[in-house]
């Protein structure tokens, strides 16, 4: 029988692609930090590429920032796979990160953030030691 304690879960819309409105399938992150399903991003790129076949860039579907393709010499149908997987979203979907879990380096301290640079989670002590100056995302914000 369970302990009766319910661990907080991320808001459902955080795990939802803004193109297809379904749970992410292979979430890929653009440089502007917006994330989309790999398949949705592929379809979007192919549609946008048809409109302007000469360019090696496309606008983000959310913020319209111009996105430069990492390897423009590759065929357009491979562009979506070139953007990094959003490992934080994958981990949240897989249930790897629980807000009440303790930090592995500082037992007893709660996990508070995800480090984009090192692709790992940590507590406040980690933030001021191992991840000072890193790009981090607060997990508190994700769970509100």
UniProtKB/TrEMBL annotation:
It holds the Pfam family zf-RING_UBOX. Keywords: Metal-binding, Zinc, Zinc-finger. It comes from Dreissena polymorpha. The keyword Zinc-finger applies. Gene3D superfamilies: Classic Zinc Finger (3.30.160.60), Zinc/RING finger domain, C3HC4 (zinc finger) (3.30.40.10). CDD domains: Bbox2. The keyword Zinc applies. GO terms for cellular component: nucleoplasm. InterPro entries: TRIM45/56/19-like, Znf-RING_euk, Znf_B-box, Znf_RING, Znf_RING/FYVE/PHD, Znf_RING_CS. SUPFAM superfamilies: B-box zinc-binding domain, RING/U-box. One of its GO terms (molecular function) is zinc ion binding. This is RING-type domain-containing protein. Residues 17-64 form the RING-type domain.
């Amino acid at each position: 029988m369970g302990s009766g304690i319910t661990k907080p879960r991320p808001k459902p819309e955080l795990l939802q692609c803004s193109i297809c409105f379904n749970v992410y399938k292979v979430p890929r992150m653009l440089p502007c930090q917006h994330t989309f399903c790999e398949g949705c991003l592929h379809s979007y790129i192919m549609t946008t590429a048809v409109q302007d076949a000469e360019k090696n860039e496309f606008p983000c579907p959310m913020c319209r920032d111009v996105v430069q393709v990492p390897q423009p010499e590759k065929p357009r149908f491979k562009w979506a796979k070139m953007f990094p997987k959003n490992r934080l979203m994958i981990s949240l979907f897989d249930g790897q990160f629980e807000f009440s879990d303790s930090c592995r380096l500082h037992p007893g301290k709660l996990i508070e953030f995800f480090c984009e640079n090192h692709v790992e989670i940590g507590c406040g002590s980690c933030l001021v030691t191992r991840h000072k100056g890193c790009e981090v995302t607060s997990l508190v914000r994700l769970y509100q």
